[in-house]
Amino acid sequence: MIIEKTSPEVGGMGHSIKRKEDSRFIQGKGNYVDDVRLPGMVYGYMVRSPYAHARLKSVNTEKARQLPGVLAIITGEDLAKAGLAWMPTLFFDKQMVLATGKVLFQSQEVAFVVAEDQYTAADAAELVEVEYEELPVLVDPHRATAPDAPILRDDRDEKSNHIFHWEVGDKSATEKAFQSAPVKASIHAISQRCHPAPLETCGCVADFNKATDKLTVYLTSQAPHAHRTLFALVGGIPEQNIRVVSPDIGGGFGNKVPIYPGYVCAVVASLTLGVPVKWIETRSENLQSTGFARDYHMTAEIAADQSGKVKALRVKTLADHGAFNAAAQPTKFPAGLFSVCTGSYDFPNAFVEVDGVYTNKAPGGIAYRCSFRITEAVYLIERAMDVLASQLKVDSAELRRRNFIQPKQFPYKTPLGWTYDSGNYEGALDKALEMVGYSQLRKEQEEKRKKGELMGIGISSFTEAVGAGPAHTFDIAGIKMFDSAEIRIHPTGKAICRMGTKSQGQGHETTYAQIVAQELGIPASDVVVEEGDTDTAPYGLGTYASRSTPTSGAATAIAARKIRDKAKKIAAHLLECSEADLDWETGKFFVKGAPSKAKTIQEIAFAAYTNIPAGLEAGLEAVDYYDPPNLTFPFGTYVCVVDIDKGTGEVKVRRFVAVDDCGNVINPMIVEGQIHGGLTEGFAIAFMQLIDYDENGNVQGGSFMDYLIPTAVETPHWETGSTCTPSPHHPFGAKGVGESPNVGSPAAFVNAVVDALSHLGVKHIDMPITPWKVWNALKEKGVVS
Amino acid sequence: MPKKQTVRVKVNGVQREMEVEPRLLLVHFIREKLGLTGTHVGCDTSNCGACTVVLDGKTVKSCTVFAVQADGAELLTVEGLLRDGKLHPLQEGFKQEHGLQCGFCTPGMLMSTYALLEKNSQPTEQDIRWGISGNLCRCTGYQNIVKAVQYAAGKLAQGGPR
Fold this sequence. Notes:
The structure holds two protein chains of two kinds. By secondary structure, chain A is an alpha+beta fold. Chain A folds into three domains: about 20-30 and about 485-625, Aldehyde Oxidoreductase, domain 4 (2-Layer Sandwich), CATH 3.30.365; about 35-135 and about 200-250 and about 255-290, Aldehyde Oxidoreductase, domain 3, CATH 3.90.1170; about 375-465 and about 630-780, 2-Layer Sandwich (Aldehyde Oxidoreductase, domain 4). In chain A, helix 9 (about 375-390) packs parallel to helix 17 (about 740-755), helix 13 packs parallel to helix 14 (about 550-575) and helix 14 packs across helix 15. Chain A is globular. The model of chain A has no long low-confidence stretch (mean pLDDT about 95). Chain B is of the alpha+beta class. Chain B has two domains: about 5-80, Roll (Ubiquitin-like (UB roll)), CATH 3.10.20.30; about 90-155, [2Fe-2S]-binding domain (DNA polymerase, domain 1, Orthogonal Bundle), CATH 1.10.150.120. In chain B, about 30% of the residues lie in helices and about 15% in strands. Chain B is built from five helices and five strands. In chain B, strand 1 (about 5-10) and strand 2 form a beta hairpin. In chain B, helix 2 (about 90-95) crosses helix 5 (about 145-155). The longest helix of chain B has 15 residues, at about 145-155. The mean pLDDT of chain B is about 95. Chains A and B meet through helix 1 and helix 16 of A and helix 2, helix 3, helix 4 and helix 5 of B.
């Protein structure tokens, strides 16, 4: 599918036009939730548990209430009276809004204080007296089902910390393949608990108007429509009386998909007090209580023949979901899309098992810049392939090449049930190896090893699965995962486009306008894109899982084509010919064989309101709800080169080459920006980011003092490249891309570090790879003392 | 509650005076009292730099300064970068070089790099990376921010506005 490029003035697909949204951000005129100020607005502050597991003996609010300026204090008991002490999670579980009975993780929400200003609210929170009785704490997920483990969730009928067992694939065929295989390789790897930590924390302003019965919630939401419906279903507020507005969002990365207790408390407080209530969490609250990601403890085994050709994959995983199963993923998939773990390779057989357990940790299991557990899956298979290569003493690029699914095999059905749309994995690998100068680097490595220097090269040839729906397979809390676009062409030929998705920095105001420009020839600069206001935007499921371009992007193209169909009728009327006599070229219809007899889209738009053909409705607009026939499967190869300081264990990323294939590209500048950002987060996961707990369930990594975010100084220089294999089922051949770099890169970093140490006998180091871990590995191998 | 104190500051060239609690943080003074919401709060430990402003020519993290400490000072926030309706070359650079995505860190980045260029008009890539090492960005991976600052340095060298 080749996209014909428009002129730069039109600014259709493939042009790196500058972002429309930037003008307000560079002038400090963005409008984030914390910037919303309404008359009479008051402030909420959360009282949180210092204990990871404790019985709640009493919550005394007397002293706090006496503080001047305090307006209300809501406790779990108060919410229980209204039936709101618990709320459903996005995954068949429930979660305490405010604790009743006991607390299950450190920093759990216990009471909500409302005061005239934020300082008074914080003061009053200090005065709330909570009496706890400590209970035994469960931190290690491997101990969750031990006979002596404390049962955490006494609210459940099932008196066990085990949440679910999920398996997929052909168990007996896989076992058979293992029995007969001459080569077996295995790895145990942890995809550690981390947090998306967008620079803007979560928060809201809830504004209930008692005169109109209307509730407006300004919300840091990646999915405003779904949140409106959930507020209606859970809170019993008629949906037409709820308006969710997601204004400018300061990064999401999956953190802003769930509904958090603070939102519910602010809504309850506004309903009670009849004034707007603002609640903005602090960074520490964000890291300690809102949706964490990963915490997958995985074992993979590969069966292969002597040449390294893979025969079967067997995976067993323990998933730590914390105190409540608040995973944000489609309801048919308790482990998300983890079963994409056969990756880019032609495995004839595979079998995967995942068990989820509760522990005394913050709830979650959200998709941090990935489609529902794909980062875990890709990390595992890309590490496992390196282990196999190392065991067989085959070059890791060569082993991948021997096992790639071949271009002629697409659409390719994986043994775990996915159908990949298109791919050319060898093409991306070849390009990446050429860009990095692979054979030279291997020679250099050999030389360096002779001198005792440590240098490593890591490869990751990932396949992503993004853009959920299709609706028959994917939903969030029962709401099907289609998405939408509405385009209205004004009489003067300018347009407004409204979407069911919601940008958090991805540049939607620019890229959707480019799709309209491509399809209708209306310059992108003449197209305004609006998202995030549920009163005006068509219903949609929001932005995460790299789904905006695959779903709403597709809807934009289809809606534009509907408009073009109507425009053709108007053009025929204006040119006094039949529709069959007309041809389209960017921005105009013309009479076949007489190109001077033409009507531009602007002239047609004007006629749609001023000179309407008989029998045709006035106006020029269309809406489309797009249900994709399949996911899209972007892919790529990343190559990382590291040098390791033997004295300190410090890893220096010398080069990082990223070749991505996301099909046809809307705006190359924005795609490259997404790649840079995702690689930086992947780098952070590989080397820095960890939410850990001590044996008492105290969170380690609960602020930016010890949850480490890379600065410009540590962040490597990224080298990017691309290949283009369009999606055959997407209206303009695009695939999602925002998450590929975060999904594909952790394995490249870790493979590089292990490669640098493999000749010493090091087989694996778990993330985050700190200098301390590397230094200890060197010490263990007798390299340093 | 301690007595309120008077704070007089020149903000983006305009003299302001207000009675505030001594414990009021400068960032809250700027955002809540002056209504200049371009300066953001991204953490509670002075790590992220989203609240960076220029106080008497030096960058400070305004979440770590009390408003009363700014008494008598001159303050420049992101809203003050625009002069005579024209963008500062840094603002232009961030847009031209795609140096921002969600925009939340951008005001702090602009103020840090503004102060950097005042001290060092031709910074190297390393100078720029160290110059913004107190400002976290979760979206861009910094590479295009570096380019944005280089763009601005180039523009200023050709005789830009300042």
